[in-house]
Specification:
single chain; mainly beta; four-stranded antiparallel beta sheet; about 35% strand
Length: about 160
């Protein structure tokens, strides 16, 4: 095995990484039948973590299906943090809010959102929803991770 000519080589420790995990569950079941109906609410939970060896900044989470995305104010390790939502990263930097924070290697941040089922969702018998998290390493390299959650508990 020649490391110089091989298509597969070990990854060095300075590769930035971000990982998004997204889970969906039936959060509000108005008639308690354990199936999705019009007006029932799906609950999404997101975890953005840094499995790499470099800190990440400008963490952004984009999920076009939801409008009430909320993220914890501190990371799992207790560090103050702000996740940019959608195109919010391009907002006016002078609006007074503390921006971003550093997501250290091994740390994570949790977010939640909800989505009310529509008649179209029920007719399709599934809701496929993808979200993307991104971040920036100290040297400017951008990293992204996409996660898809599928809800299919319909009659």
């Amino acid at each position: 095995f020649d490391l110089q000519t091989s298509a597969c080589a070990a990854i060095s420790g300075d590769v930035p990484l971000v990982r998004l995990t997204k889970v969906v569950e039936l959060g509000i079941d108005n008639n308690n039948d354990h199936y999705g109906d019009v007006g029932d609410v799906l609950h999404y939970s997101f975890t953005i973590d840094n499995p790499g060896m470099l800190p990440l900044s400008a963490i952004q989470l984009v999920d076009p299906r939801v409008s009430d995305l909320q993220c914890d104010a501190v990371t799992a390790n207790g560090e103050p943090f702000y996740v940019f939502r959608g195109d919010e990263i391009f907002d006016d930097a002078f609006e007074g809010r503390v921006r971003g924070g550093i997501l250290a290697p091994g740390d994570s941040i949790d977010c939640t959102a909800n989505y009310a089922l529509t008649a179209e969702d029920v007719a399709r018998r599934r809701v496929i929803n993808s979200a993307t998290a991104s971040g920036v390493a100290p040297d400017g390299r951008a990293v992204t991770s996409t996660s898809t959650a599928i809800f299919a508990m319909f009659r």
